[in-house]
């Protein structure tokens, strides 16, 4: 079995085991790419399909702490938090531009250092706030 197929089957198994909404990726402390997302970044994928995630089909990525505005990104998308600061390095969905009303979904790094991939409806989201670890 090729490495790509092994990864795909592992991702699919993780997707099913976690109820279809959250996938754990490689440990953050390893400073590795998670589904094509560079270490230190939060990435948004083309849609919410496993193909978009597995193929690393990234449409936006952010590495600047604080507010990061989104432009014309609507619907369900995978969001991967591959920040390298541990469990305090969260990405918070904000309903207003420039980090206003940040009461949406929090995409965190798991306490054990594993990154998190989450499907988020970005239609009402206008910015993502990256918290400094």
Automatic annotation (TrEMBL):
Signal peptide per UniProt: 1-30
UniProt keyword annotations, A-Z: Signal
Record's protein name: Peptidase inhibitor family I36
Organism, as annotated: Kitasatospora gansuensis
């Amino acid at each position: 079995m090729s490495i790509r197929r092994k990864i795909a089957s592992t991702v699919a198994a993780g997707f099913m085991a976690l109820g279809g909404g959250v996938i754990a990726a490689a440990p953050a402390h390893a400073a590795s790419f998670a589904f094509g997302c560079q270490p230190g970044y939060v990435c948004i994928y083309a849609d919410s399909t496993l193909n978009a995630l597995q193929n690393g089909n990234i449409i936006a990525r952010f590495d600047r702490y604080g507010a990061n505005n989104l432009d014309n990104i609507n619907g369900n998308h995978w969001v991967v938090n591959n920040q390298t600061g541990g469990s305090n390095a969260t990405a918070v969905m904000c309903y207003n531009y420039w980090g206003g009303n940040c009461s949406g979904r929090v995409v965190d790094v798991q306490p054990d250092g594993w990154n998190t991939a989450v499907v988020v409806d970005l239609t009402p989201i206008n910015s993502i706030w990256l918290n400094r670890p």
